[in-house]
Amino acid sequence: MRHHLDVRGIDAHVHSAGTRPWVGGAAPLTVEVLRERGIDPADRDSRELTPDLLAAADLVIGMTITHVDVAARRLPQARPRTFLVGEVARLGRKVGPRGVDESLAAWVERVDELRSANGGFARPDDEVDDPVGLPITAYRRMADVLDSALLPLAALLAGT
């Protein structure tokens, strides 16, 4: 996400955190796939998702429903701004780009209102499979799926 926003000249604070404790940097295969895509993995240290990180976030994006559920349990107030990656991209396309003077928080609120109006149900294809323990081809597929959601999402966040 940071890469796609940087390309558009959007100054944003993008952080990554896991739902389980993890010591060390990004997984070696993640680093390899990032490098293949021209993305510097140097600042991709792993850390655990905490209530403080959630409280500071305008938008929380999880790869799986488990990630979203863990985030909502760790800080229930973050639930309205916590989405599956495919869900926020899909619903974001429906609400349209962020307005010129619209804050990210206001745009996310519009997306959440649409989600609520539709019954609040994510779709199975809104999730992205976690490739941990699988070969590099699974990491490449995951990166392709993430790009297909995050590239248009970055354009929506960049606004009109």
What does this structure look like?
With about 160 residues, the chain is mainly alpha-helical. About 50% of the residues lie in helices and about 5% in strands. The protein has helices at about 1-5, 30-35, 50-55, 65-75, 85-95, 105-115, 135-160, and strands at about 60, 80-85. Strands 1-2 form a two-stranded parallel sheet. Strand 1 (about 60), helix 4 and strand 2 (about 80-85) form a beta-alpha-beta unit. The longest helix has 23 residues, at about 135-160. The protein is globular, with a radius of gyration of 15 Å. The two termini are about 20 Å apart. The relative contact order is 0.17.
Number of H/I helices? 7
How much helix is in the residues? Answer: 40-55%
Q: Look at the structure and give the CATH class.
A: Alpha Beta
| CATH architecture annotation | 3-Layer(aba) Sandwich
Mean pLDDT: 90
Features:
160 residues, mainly alpha, Rossmann fold, two-stranded parallel ribbon, 7 helices, 2 strands
